[in-house]
């Protein structure tokens, strides 16, 4: 087995007794204090996640935008310098190679942040398709990435208000970082990207500001409560954006890889849909469990905010409406669930 | 609040990280501090039916945390007298008080001699150290 990679913050995690687990070739903290208290800290105040395992790719050159627009599902025309966009890298079948965020630094320079487990395939995909006047470079090892999330995240870091899906350079605790108003928890907050050698100083500043260290365990429960898909579970190279409910990320008037297939699925209507559900009985759904009537759970967990089992899964499109009852095979026992609107959890105003 | 690590001397231990408190021909059983710590905060206990029987070294139920599910193994054989309904309703009891409020079953032993095969506190602690 290959030695797991470690982020620049590994010693910080180990020093406070984080439980470290292998994840996508990395040794990452799954929890510090516990998944549930970390989850609640993000929902009520502020948490910080080391997500330095994620991939960062630079795409530069006068033809950078042209290259990306031919490969990514969302419309890059709407972006100006300082904007960010959630988008999909698609294959010829309309399947999802990865979901990622593209940051426009300037007209000829884009930064892509992709999933850790897809860093190599995404880089290879882009590199093989480079056109004259565009250059793709994997800079993942040069950066650390911290996600600071929660209703008090911005206030605790002393940052100015800014619109979601924007970014700017700024300083946190004296460390220069790219501050992006993006995240994976459904809360306000930001993601901070800095040179790897500044990671410890930045982490310490964020923790000193009152952010609770959070692991990948809470990251998963937080994203699932708000129905953000996880690549490899809910979306894969064999699932398409329309069935996954991600049609809003697809500019079907543009000409990108797989667009014809996506137009066809949209026109005909998808055969299956990715739905969210809540358990009606005490049980925790998990990835891979069968849903009666031809469906499958793709993500499942126990919701710390709702204190019950929740999940997402594909079901036949004809029986995908909220309110529909499901029966899930939980290790040999039939357990009842109900399809609910997305997101599963929403803060009471 | 999670409990502090401890392995009370008055209990008997099974290598699959279960404990038993023997009271005549009855026993109360649960999972050890080590087991609950390894799993993390429990969110579900799938119990057997009261009145069913459990067999030493066999699975009788499941405990589940946010991240993972684990079988619970019976340290001894017998008939189930009572399932701890409080843990069914509030599984985090197992994290808070694994040897007290967080017990899982009360059983009537079908073969009290099986107790001889269980580990004493020091032997169980040695097993944890060696694993």
Q: In percent terms, what proportion of residues of chain B is strand? A: 25-35%
Order of helices and strands of chain B: EEEHEEEEEHHEH
CATH superfamily of chain B, by name, is RNA polymerase II/Efflux pump adaptor protein, barrel-sandwich hybrid domain
Number of strands of chain A: 19
**Strand order of the biggest β-sheet of chain A:** 10-11-12-9-3-13
Shape of chain B: globular
Give the terminus-to-terminus CA distance of chain A.
49 Å
Structural class of chain A: alpha+beta
Write the layout of secondary structure elements.
The complex is a heterodimer of chains A (349) and B (131).
Chain A: H1 10-15, E1 19-23, E2 26-31, H2 35-44, E3 47-50, E4 55-60, H3 64-69, E5 84-90, E6 96-106, E7 109-114, H4 119-128, E8 135-138, E9 143-149, H5 153-157, E10 167-172, E11 175-180, E12 189-195, H6 199-208, E13 212-214, H7 216-225, H8 259-268, E14 272-279, E15 290-291, E16 295-303, E17 308-316, E18 325-330, E19 333-340
Parallel strand pairs in A: 3-13
Antiparallel strand pairs in A: 1-2, 3-9, 4-7, 4-8, 5-6, 6-7, 9-12, 10-11, 11-12, 14-17, 14-19, 15-16, 16-17, 18-19
Chain B: E1 12-14, E2 18-23, E3 26-31, H1 33-39, E4 42-46, E5 53-54, E6 59-65, E7 69-73, E8 78-83, H2 85-89, H3 93-96, E9 105-109, H4 121-130
Antiparallel strand pairs in B: 1-2, 2-3, 3-9, 4-6, 5-8, 6-7, 8-9
